[in-house]
Amino acid sequence: MSDELSFDAEHHAHVVVHPVQADATAGPYRRVDILGEHVGKAYELADVAEFCRRAGLDELDLDAEHMVQWIGGSSDVWE
Known about the structure:
single chain, 4-stranded mixed beta sheet, globular
């Protein structure tokens, strides 16, 4: 089974924002995946919006549950 297929089985949203992780040098961040591919670390909501823009999803509503899955807290959880 490919990674993309396993992603589809687990997540239905285009964007998945994972729980907060600790980074001693840069501060807390959340891993961001778009369409099953890791695209970077977000340190704030604006970073998620930028990743979406780069992926061509700049009109995406970050609060739309069917488009963005926030794991480990909503869009206001960054610590």
